[in-house]
Amino acid sequence: MMPTLIPPVNALDHATGAEHATIELVEYGDFQCPYCREAFFIVKEIQQQLGDKLRFIFRHFPLSEAHEYAMDAALAAEAAALQQQFWPMHDALYNRQVDLDEALLVILATELGLDLRKFSDDMDSPRLLSKVEADFESGVRSGVNGTPTFYVNGKRYDGDYQDLASFLAC
């Protein structure tokens, strides 16, 4: 049986695109994972091609044992979200992934015009850590064992995400 998304997309998720889109694409990702960076550009292309037919949801799955800054990057995205800048931070983290370290997080926050004191305080917030951990746990319950892992309309997509045609055919 094909693994399904647990829990289904809900108000706690970061989502972009038409709310009533016919295709719901969920990614479990790690901001330091090079494969997630590759997938980032493919998802951007899919978003362009499908427009209002697609709703894209990102859930954190930081592989902290393999990627030193994955958790900090996830927390930075959540801290940015509290200032309505999740998606700009999401994109900036993937676009500048090769430079990812603690200093880059502050640079990106500055470039996005965030309140740096609030950003810094929020980065240390147990509430944000709980959000990232909840995403990770939902990934485990959904059968995620690596990044990126995608779900299309609640079902895990096990095809090659680099094959845009098969990805779009779901």
Give a written overview of the molecule:
With 170 residues, the protein is α+β, with helices and mostly antiparallel strands. 46% of the residues lie in helices and 15% in strands. Strand 2, helix 1 and strand 3 form a beta-alpha-beta unit. Helix 2 packs antiparallel against helix 3, helix 2 crosses helix 5 and helix 2 packs across helix 6. The longest helix has 17 residues. The protein is globular and about 45 Å long.
Summarize the structure.
The chain is an alpha+beta fold and 170 residues long.
What's the SSE blueprint?
Elements: E1 14-17, E2 23-29, H1 34-50, E3 54-60, H2 70-81, H3 86-95, H4 102-111, H5 116-123, H6 126-141, E4 149-152, E5 155-157, H7 164-168
Parallel strand pairs: 2-3
Antiparallel strand pairs: 1-3, 2-4, 4-5
Helix pairs in contact: 2-3, 2-5, 2-6
Secondary-structure-based class equals: alpha+beta
Number of helices: 7
Helix coverage percent: 40-55%
Strand content: 5-15%
How many strands appear in the DSSP assignment? 5
Give the low-pLDDT segments: none
- Side by side, the strands of the main sheet go 1-3-2-4-5
- The overall average pLDDT, rounded, is 94
